[in-house]
Design goal:
The radius of gyration is 22 Å and the shape is globular. The protein has a seven-stranded mixed β-sheet, with helices on both faces. It has 15 helices and 18 strands. Helix 2 packs parallel to helix 12 and helix 12 runs antiparallel to helix 13. About 35% of the residues lie in helices and about 25% in strands. The protein is α/β, with parallel strands linked by helices and about 400 residues long.
Length: about 400
């Protein structure tokens, strides 16, 4: 059977119904491609609306081809932040080195993108909202699989039977927990915790990041443009995850304040701003590593299946590529064969990009005085842009050519 024949079959066959949990990045991207392949798609999101703002995210390598095929690349290029300088400071606040960000990240100037997370989610939603059903202020309560579908009960009281369900609900995925059990068995803690929030830009920063380091601690101010606010970031090494703080915002604030109590530079002001911040996000730095990404008629995508951690800078790109590969694998296959093809075609790319976490941690957050000095010496030698075509892992997968059905 030719590809044209397959697509004709898709057009004339009753639309298979699917449900996606999560309207972040992986969810709407998957909805876009599944809709193109003839599926009737519903996205359920526990938040009341799309989450705007948020920390800037990177779109690199293979993911650039995904957004190009979606038709949103020009919009994202217009939203590109164009971070121009990354300055590292020592414990006394003195400058260690000032470099172009791509020198450290392995990005490619003029090609790779960095955008506000809200700009990307807005673009994804706009690309699919007219063709896909979105249910906000709701989430999956229970899943029951049978030979003919998945019976879904929503927390809002609704009930649906669909052909497949997809968990695109992030690192702490409820869908994954219902399918495979507690997160702890798949979470690989990388020895750090972080807090991020916004605060007034009283520093005169524009299109740049300034990072202060002492062994095991880092504080950064990130100005995405000439805005009145900056993103404040505090990271610290901790051998074991502080489980007692993860669900308690005040405990989070107390822990961060205690770790940075004697810190210099702008850290005291950052701690004061953190106390009043209404957008504080705190978590452990970690990855999700799973032996398989599906069970029966339910599959995971993005951070829910393979969160790489922010140390890689590849969470967004993995979500976009994973969504494309999952939908493409289901274009002309049933769920069993499609999920197998998804894992076979995507896992090597995921593994390569998750492997970048060690490089990111060593560069940004050395934990000993010796490692910090070695890092600083390397930075002092990075005065020019890298000549290579960027980080090979970013582009280590070539997308299959599947023709949309509409």
């Amino acid at each position: 059977m030719t590809l044209t024949d397959q697509l004709t079959d898709v057009r004339t066959t009753p639309r298979r119904k699917v449900l996606i949990s999560g309207a972040g990045i992986a969810g709407p991207a998957l909805a876009f491609w599944l809709n193109r392949y003839g599926y009737a798609v519903t996205v359920v999101e526990r938040a009341g609306t799309l989450r705007s703002g948020g920390y800037p995210v990177d779109v690199r390598g293979t993911a650039l081809e995904v957004v190009r095929r979606m038709g949103i690349l020009p919009q994202l290029r217009d939203a590109h932040i164009d971070l121009r300088r990354l300055t590292f400071l020592g414990g006394n606040g003195g400058e260690v080195a000032s470099v172009h960000p791509h020198t450290v990240t392995g990005g490619v100037d003029g090609r790779d993108l960095e955008v506000r997370r809200g700009d990307l989610t807005d673009a994804l939603y706009a690309a699919v909202r007219d063709d896909v059903e979105f249910l906000f202020n709701d989430s999956i309560d229970t899943l029951g699989q049978s030979g003919h579908g998945v019976d879904v009960t929503l927390r809002g009281g609704g009930r649906r039977t669909v052909d497949m369900v997809f968990g695109a609900d992030g690192t702490h995925s409820r869908t994954r927990e219902m399918l495979f059990g507690p997160e702890e068995q798949f979470h690989r803690y990388l020895g750090h915790c972080f807090a991020v929030f916004t605060m007034p830009n009283t520093f005169g920063l524009s299109h740049e990041t300034v990072m202060w380091n002492t062994p095991g601690r880092a504080a950064a101010l990130y100005a995405v443009g000439e805005d009145d606010e900056v993103h404040a970031f505090l990271n610290f090494a901790r051998p074991k995850p502080p489980f007692e703080a993860f669900r308690n915002p005040e405990a989070q604030r107390d822990l961060v304040a205690a770790v940075f109590a004697d810190a210099g530079w702008e850290v005291p002001g950052m701690l004061a701003a953190m106390r009043d911040a209404d957008d504080l996000f705190f978590d452990g730095v970690g990855q999700i590593r799973m032996p398989r990404w599906s069970s029966g008629r339910v599959a995971l995508v993005g951070d829910a299946a393979y969160a790489p951690s922010f140390l890689t800078g590849q969470g967004t790109s993995l979500a976009l590529v994973g969504a494309y590969m999952l939908a493409a694998s289901l274009a002309d296959r049933d769920h069993t064969a499609g999920f197998a093809a998804y894992e076979q075609g995507t896992r090597e790319f995921v593994t390569a990009n998750q492997g970048l976490a060690g490089e990111g941690g060593a560069t940004l957050f050395p934990t000993t005085a010796e490692a910090l000095e070695q890092r600083n010496e390397r930075l002092r030698g990075l005065r020019t842009m890298p000549t290579a075509g960027g980080q090979p892992a970013h582009r280590s997968l070539t997308l299959p050519d599947f023709i949309p059905t509409t």
